[in-house]
Specification:
Mean pLDDT of chain B: 96
Structural class of chain A: mainly beta
Radius of gyration of chain A: 14 Å
Distance between the termini of chain B: 36 Å
Radius of gyration of chain B: 13 Å
Structural class of chain B: mainly beta
Distance between the termini of chain A: 39 Å
Helix content of chain B: under 10%
Shape of chain A: globular
Largest sheet of chain B: 7 strands, mixed
Low-confidence stretches of chain A: none
Shape of chain B: globular
Oligomer: heterodimer
Strand content of chain B: over 45%
Low-confidence stretches of chain B: none
Chain lengths: 125, 107
């Protein structure tokens, strides 16, 4: 069974740091781009970051650039999100997600599937 | 950045009704659009990719259309399990952006 399990969330003070982890199983982790998506309480979804198969390319939403770092360890089938200089507006459930896709006629179409169950990060004093 | 605007933000409807949700992109995204369904307390579930291609396991009452800047998700006959919030996502260019969501509620 393909599964993603996040951990590492919790309560942290503004300006603090937290490292989220996502353990992958049931598929060849090194063959997929991976992503972090977050959802503030009662709000919509926000894409946070993507990382390429070998970690050589990374992309971020502007609001976390310079503060968050996505990384992966293919030997451990694990995805990470190092979050520094946390702000109240970073409070959210953080989901890791596998980026799947198809390339009919050479054009790549992506989607997130599966998703983890999410881990709650609360930034508050 | 590409802005994705969904409408309506919510709607009240009944089992058996036809439902249409619209997603508009602030610039041309071709058909690089995915639709998701999310139920309270759960992770989103993918429904459709390339704006109109149904993903495996998704009921055929769901359909999608559009290209460029305007897209629609249609549920032909709403079932009880379809009451949820629906999101579009564009992956044409970074940063990837979601619409703000459409909550489909029971009338």
């Amino acid at each position: 069974e393909v599964q993603l399990v996040e951990s590492g969330g919790g309560l942290v003070q503004p300006g603090g740091s937290l490292r989220l982890s996502c353990a992958a199983s049931g598929f060849t982790f090194s063959s997929y781009w991976m992503s972090w998506v977050r959802q503030a309480p009662g709000k919509g979804l926000e894409w946070v970051a993507n990382i390429k198969l070998d970690g050589s390319d990374k992309y971020y939403v502007d609001s976390v650039k310079g503060r968050f770092t996505i990384s992966r360890d293919n030997a451990k089938n694990s995805l990470y999100l190092q979050m520094n200089s946390l702000r109240a507006e970073d409070t959210a459930v953080y989901y890791c997600a596998r980026i799947g896709g198809v390339a009919p006629a050479g054009r790549w179409y992506s989607w997130f599937d599966p998703w983890g169950q999410g881990t709650l990060v609360t930034v508050s004093s | 950045d590409i802005q994705m605007t969904q409408s309506p933000s919510s709607l009240s409807t009944s089992v058996g009704d036809r439902v249409t949700i619209t997603c508009r992109a602030s610039q041309d995204i071709r058909n690089d659009l995915v639709w998701y369904q999310q139920k309270p307390g759960k992770a989103p579930k993918r429904l459709m990719y390339a704006a109109s291609s149904l993903l495996s396991g998704v009921p055929s009452r769901f359909s999608g259309s559009g290209s460029g800047t305007e897209f629609t998700l249609t549920i032909s006959s709403l079932q009880p399990e379809d009451f949820a919030t629906y999101y579009c996502l564009q992956h044409n260019s970074y940063p990837w952006t979601f619409g703000q969501g459409t909550k489909v509620e029971i009338k």
